């Protein structure tokens, strides 16, 4: 895993030459604070100069190891050769016409790729948008138009975006919803199979949680009123929760039996992130609709809804769209990103990252006295997390997650936190990261634990 994908001039190394953040970043941070709305946060205020492969170089000359990928976006790196080449060529040809005014081939090609790569061999169609939230909103519009029903079912710990409808779909109040209501109606939340925290244990979790969820849907909403059930096959912001085995198939079957559109939100888990093109493949799920964004276009804004042709065609002509949806430069980037995923076999790379990470994290848990604060190690592919708890309990330990993240940042390793309780440290390296950098990042995590 030594291919350079950040351009040959970007060394794949960690290099710390100032405090983190350094003086130039601090200066820019002051300008930023004066002019950027306070509601827009940053995990780590180091200002980026260049990025690619497994590193982010800042304006002070520091080079950080990237375990964040801009929140699971730059799976092919932040300057992948094929993405830069194709997007640059498209930029020179034309930047925009609006697909709804005069169309172009790149949009069609992306939809062809989506039809080929997503699960199931039924006839499929797609519509392209700019952001994940927009894709989820459109999946709801399409499901409602198809079923002529209104209710939408989502799950505990689910995350689907920050627009009004997707705030309603999202479970966690702070920071996503606090003060921003009222929220869209006809949204209902049911339990998810969170094995680590299921009262009767992980073995029973899939069957019990699906039975509870289905019981709530039938008793509280009425299956015949439900347009869509939307679930992340691996829950992202909620804490990298893999629903216990059996849960997703049971929910998908229930949807099928009741004429409900089953929507897999693969915005974070899709495009090789979990070691498969889509995480729902793990249990052989074939969703009716699938939403994608993040990893799809190597960092350019693009999102899609893909699904059964008869469902996708339910809205009337002109009912779907948007000025920028499926921008030609973003489509070119997506084609470059997909090309890179195929050529470098990034599913295999993601599986290797899982093997290395889970192995090292399990060693840390066993070896360190304070390994007891690692309650759970979970996730798939390059979507791995540790849930931190008070030793000997399952009480969430958000302070430890915050302290570990801070310690990693100071040493030049970018990591992110997540989880309903804020106590999950998550690792989302670019799939093209070199194994030496991956291990160096894990060394930093190990040292941070030792100092905690
Ligand atoms: C990030 C995310 C979204 C929202 O995507 P945006 O591009 O930020 O609007 C929706 N669903 C999931 C699962 C996500 O991870």
TrEMBL record:
Enzyme class: transferase
MF GO annotations: (S)-3-amino-2-methylpropionate transaminase activity; 4-aminobutyrate:2-oxoglutarate transaminase activity; 5-aminovalerate transaminase activity; identical protein binding; pyridoxal phosphate binding
InterPro entries per record: 4NH2But_aminotransferase_bac (IPR004632), Aminotrans_3 (IPR005814), Aminotrans_3_PPA_site (IPR049704), Class-III_PLP-dep_AT (IPR050103), PyrdxlP-dep_Trfase (IPR015424), PyrdxlP-dep_Trfase_major (IPR015421), PyrdxlP-dep_Trfase_small (IPR015422)
Cofactor(s) required for function per UniProt: pyridoxal 5'-phosphate
Catalytic reaction list: 4-aminobutanoate + 2-oxoglutarate = succinate semialdehyde + L-glutamate; (S)-3-amino-2-methylpropanoate + 2-oxoglutarate = 2-methyl-3-oxopropanoate + L-glutamate
UniProt KW keywords: Aminotransferase, Pyridoxal phosphate, Transferase
Keyword Transferase: yes
Protein name: 4-aminobutyrate aminotransferase
Organism of this sequence: Streptomyces albireticuli
């Amino acid at each position: 895993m030594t291919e350079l994908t950040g351009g040959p001039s970007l060394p794949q190394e960690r290099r710390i030459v100032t405090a983190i953040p350094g003086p130039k970043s601090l200066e820019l941070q002051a300008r930023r604070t004066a002019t950027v709305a306070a509601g827009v946060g940053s995990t780590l205020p180091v200002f980026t100069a260049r990025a690619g492969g497994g590193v982010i170089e800042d304006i002070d000359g520091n080079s950080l190891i990237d375990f964040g990928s801009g929140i699971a976006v730059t799976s092919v790196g932040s300057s992948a050769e094929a993405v830069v080449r194709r997007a640059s060529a498209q930029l020179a040809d034309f930047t925009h016409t609006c697909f709804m005014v005069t169309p172009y081939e790149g949009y069609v090609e992306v939809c062809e790729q989506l039809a080929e790569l997503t699960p199931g061999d039924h006839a499929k169609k797609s519509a392209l948008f700019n952001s994940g939230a927009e894709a989820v909103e459109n999946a709801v519009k399409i499901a409602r138009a198809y079923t002529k029903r209104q209710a939408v079912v989502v799950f505990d710990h689910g995350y689907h975006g920050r627009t009004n409808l997707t705030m309603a779909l999202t479970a966690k109040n702070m920071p996503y919803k606090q003060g921003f209501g009222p929220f869209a109606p006809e949204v209902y939340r049911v339990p998810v199979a969170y094995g680590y925290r299921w009262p009767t244990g992980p073995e029973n979790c899939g069957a019990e949680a699906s039975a509870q969820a289905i019981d709530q849907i039938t008793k509280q909403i009425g299956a015949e009123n439900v347009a869509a059930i939307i679930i992340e096959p691996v829950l992202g912001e909620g804490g990298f929760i893999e629903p216990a085995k059996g849960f997703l198939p049971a929910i998908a079957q229930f949807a099928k039996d009741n004429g409900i559109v089953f929507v897999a939100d693969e915005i974070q888990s899709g495009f090789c992130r979990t070691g498969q093109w889509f995480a729902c493949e793990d249990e052989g799920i074939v969703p009716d609709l699938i939403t994608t964004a993040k990893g799809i276009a190597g960092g350019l804004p693009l999102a899609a809804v893909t699904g059964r042709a008869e469902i996708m065609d339910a809205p009337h002509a002109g009912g779907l769209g948007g000025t920028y949806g499926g921008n030609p430069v973003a489509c070119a980037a997506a084609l470059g990103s997909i090309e890179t995923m195929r050529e470098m076999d990034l599913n295999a790379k993601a599986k290797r990252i899982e093997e290395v990470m889970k192995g090292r994290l399990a060693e840390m848990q066993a070896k360190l006295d304070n390994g007891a604060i690692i309650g759970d190690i979970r996730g798939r592919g390059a979507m791995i997390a540790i849930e931190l708890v008070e030793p000997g309990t399952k009480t969430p330990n958000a302070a430890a997650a915050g302290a570990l993240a801070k310690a990693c940042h100071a040493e030049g390793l970018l990591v992110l936190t997540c989880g309903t309780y804020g106590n999950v440290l998550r690792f989302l390296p670019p799939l093209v990261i070199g194994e030496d950098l991956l291990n160096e990042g894990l060394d930093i995590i190990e040292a941070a634990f030792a100092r905690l």
